[in-house]
From TrEMBL, chain A:
The lineage of its organism: Bacteria, Pseudomonadati, Pseudomonadota, Alphaproteobacteria, Rhodobacterales. The chain crosses the membrane at residues 6-26, 70-89. The keyword Transmembrane helix applies. It comes from the Bacteria. It comes from Albidovulum inexpectatum. The keyword Transmembrane helix applies. Keywords: Membrane, Transmembrane, Transmembrane helix. This is Cation/multidrug efflux pump.
From TrEMBL, chain B:
It holds the Pfam family DUF1523. The chain crosses the membrane at residues 6-24, 148-167. This is Uncharacterized protein DUF1523. InterPro entries: Phage_phiNM3_A0EWY4. Keywords: Membrane, Transmembrane, Transmembrane helix. It comes from Albidovulum inexpectatum.
Amino acid sequence: MIGFIRLAVLGVAGMTVMYFLLSIYSRSVERERLEKEWDERHPGGGDAEARDAYIERGMQEYERSLRHKLIWLVYVLPTLAVLLLIYLTNRT
Amino acid sequence: MRYVKWTLISLTVLIVGAFLHYTLPQHDIVRIVNTYQERQDLNDWTRIFWATPDDQSTGLINRDVQFIQAVKPNGKPMVYRNEDTGWNWPPYFKFDTANLQTKAEDLKSTAENPKWVVVTHYGWRIVFLSVFPNAIDIEPVEGPDVTIIPWFNIFFFVFLGILFLVLRRMWLQFRERMIDPVVEDVSDAWDRVDERADRVRGNARGLWARFRNWLDTWRGRPRI
C-alpha cells in the first residue's frame, strides 16, 4: 500500500510538472503565432493598443480551444499506460 | 579539460546505458528444467538486486524467493528469480509470481523432448554476487530459432526520443521568448555605454585605446 501511495504521489507530481511546462509552452507558441499574424497584416506595425487587444482576444479564444484542453491528456495517457502495463504483466 | 569532459560524458553514457540495460525487458529462449524456492539473506548491499514485493519486506533480513532453472539452446544454464515487483521499482507492476511459478512448473521439459519457451525478464545474472534476473512472463514458442520483436523497447525508445525533442523545443521557445530579448536589451545598453566612453576618450587616446581599436578590427569593426 505504501508503494502504491508513493507511486501515486510521485506520478501526480511528475504529471503536474509536465502539465504546467506544456501549457506554458503551448501558450507561448500561440502568442507568438498571434503576434506574427498581426505583424503580417500590418506591415507598418499598426496601433500598439489594437495589437495588444487583438493578441489578448486571440489568447482568450485559445483558452477555450480544444488544443488547450488536450493538454489534460498528460494526466490521462500515463495513467492508461500504467493500467495497460498492469494488465499485460498479470494476465494469464 | 577535454579529457575531463570526455570522461564525464562517457561515464554518464555508461551509467545511463547500464541502468536501461538492467531495467528494460529482455527475452531469452530457454527450456525450463526445474523450479525451487530458497531462503535468501537480504542484509548486505546486494539487497538492491532483490525486489521489495510488499511493504514489510523492506524490514526483513531474509525471506523465501522462488527460482526458475532453465537451459539455453546452447546448453548453458540460466537461473531466474521470480519475485513480485508490486508498485515499486522497476515499474513492471508484477503481482502474479505464484501464477508464473505454476506456469513454469507446467512447462518443464527434458533435453530429449524439449518444450521451448520465451522468458521475458529484466536484470542481470551475476554469478559472483548471486544476482538473478527477475522473470516477468513465460510463453511457449515453436522452437529455439524464433525471432522476437522487442515491441516494448521500440515504443519506449521512440517515446524517450519524442520526450527529448519536446523538452528541447520547449527550452528553445523559452530562450527565444524570455531570455534573448533580455540579453539583447542588456547588450544594447552596454554598447551605448561603450560608445559614449569611446567618445569621451576620443581626444586622449593612449596606447591602450589604440590597442583596443586594433583588437576590434578582428571583430569586423572599422578603425576609428
